[in-house]
Structures are given as structure tokens and as C-alpha cells.
Amino acid sequence: MPRTGVLSEATRIDPVPADHEALEGLSTREDAGDGELVLRTADGAEISLPQSLVRLVMSAAANLAAGRAVMAIPAEVTLTPAEAAGLLGLSRPFVVRLLERGDIPSEFLPGSRHRRIRLEDVLAFQARRERRAEGRRRIADIADTAGLPYLCLLSVARVFVDANVLYPFSVMDLILALTEDGIHDVLWTEELLDEWERVIVRGGKRSPDAAAGITATIRGFFADTRIPPDSYRNLVTEVGGRDPDDDVHMAAAVAAGADALVTWNEKDFTCDFMKDHAVPVMDPDAYLCSLYDEFPDEVASTITRLAAEKRRPPLMPSDLVDSLERAGVREFASKAREHLG
Questions:
Q1: Cα 253 to Cα 83, 128, 218, distances in angstroms
Q2: Can you list the domains of the chain with their CATH numbers?
Q3: Mean pLDDT of all residues in the chain?
Q4: For the chain, which terminal residue's Cβ has fewer other Cβ atoms within 10 angstroms, N or C?
Q5: Are strands 260-262 and 281-282 parallel, antiparallel or unpaired?
């Protein structure tokens, strides 16, 4: 028997113009969430709604008042990969990759190769995307206000990115935007952020307050991807690289299970320690090209979305690609330009 779509189990309510005034009045009442809502039935009986339902009603009222339809569906229901892809606005093959990587928990049906995903896990993944999006927007605002170029050490779907990679801002903005779409994750260490602040302030790039604003945003909005110090500090003495700070970064990359370390200075990170732990060292252009080769549509979609968000000044996708080319990722820019037409 064919599976019934999960959305068939949902209760959908569309906004009705005649209800707008009442809904807006309810949604703007600051005390309504702490008050009592009473349901009066057709026979005149009154039922006081529990606080859990009051919260649901208030949330629904706010969305309906804003002209948005709402749907009620049990969080415990399960989705197919195709249904999860539809809810997230991602392609099914890409969602399958997220499932295989464990970014979204899933289970196989007994005796089957078919997966099922809990709706609440899909919603948790989306909430994480939205949190990272807000973090990137705040970083972009600080950069725009302070005229701040970016210098940072981050990591991607287990890929470490060296401090010299993420400026000009166009490269950092793309790196962070790709995290929102699940293409990779950004990992960081306390040593990284401390080094970033020292270098950016010492180099006269901008004020200590502007630099501190960036690191505070990373700590707040990307807290789940911090690499715990205890996981790599005992490895630092084994690295034997050219620079003590770089040794810490290489140890962290290995401890975090990085797929690659991305840097413009490949020679500074090429050593037996990295080879022994099978962590390749790549330049940013090669890394971004590898992402594009694996997920061309998703990467191109991220570029298009990122350009559409720009207001100061407005950007077309081609403008964003041009800025990436000027930042040094020329082969990647060529691939993206060809894809975008």
C-alpha cells in the first residue's frame, strides 16, 4: 500500500481577512499568554484551555495575523527523505547525504533500506540553520559597520580553515553561508578566536571592540561547533610544525576529525603529523571547487541566496562571484560563473 503523505495528517488553517482584527488584537495582548482562554461550546458549556494550548493558540494567532497559514502536526510523526527535503527546501540527494553524515538522525525500517526521520529532528536541524543564519547576519552587520576584513580559523564539515583564508569578507561570508545550508559545518577553538583578535587589532584593521564583536557572535551562535580544548591539547607536542600557533590548529583539526585543513600557506601546515593522520592540506580555491564538484546545485543556490540578501550595496550573483574572484578563489569563481550563466 502506498504511504500516505505526512502532511495529510496535518491540520492546516489559512488566514481569513474577516478574522484579521480579532487575531491581531489577540496576538498583541502581552498578558494573554499568562491569562486564561475559555472555549465555549455550542451548548454553552465552557472549557478552560490548559497553558500548553494557550501557547499554541497565541503562536497561531500571531502567524495568522501576519497573513501566514499555520499547520498543526504531531512532532512524533516520521518523514521519508523526500518529505524532509520538501520541508527543508533542499534536494532529496542532499538530504540523504545529511542523513548518512548524521547531521539529521534517522532510522532504517526493519528489514528495509528505506529511512524514516522524525519530524522533530528535521525541525531541530532547521532551527540550527536559522541560528547560524542569524549569527552570520550579525557578523556581516559588524563587518559592514566597521569596514572589517575577516581573519579567522574555522572548519567545515570536518574541514579546518586557516586564519589567512577568511578575508576579504566575501570569502568568510560564503564559508558561513554554506554552513546554513548544511553543506559544511564551521568548527572553531578558543585559541583561534584569541589569535584572530590579536592579529586583527595589532594589524590596525579595526578597533578591539569590532574584533570582540565578531568573536562574541561566533561563540554565541556557533557554540555547538566549538572544539573542546581537552580533545587536542595533548596532541600539540606531537605535531612538530614550524609555528607553535599552527601546531595548535593542526592538533585541533586532527582531534576534530577534519577532512581537510584549508590554508593559503600550505607549506606551513605540510608535515608528517598531518600525513600520518590522513588530513590533507588544501588551498581555499581547491577546497571550494571540491564542494562545488560534489554539490554544484546546492553551492550555486547558496551564492544566489547570499547575493539576494545584500542591500549595501545590492548585489547580483555575478557581482558576488566577481568579488570572490578578486579574493583569490579564481577557479571556483569560474565554475560558479559558468553554472549561474
A1: 35, 22, 18
A2: 6-72 (no CATH), 78-126 (1.10.1660.10), 129-340 (no CATH)
A3: 83
A4: N
A5: parallel
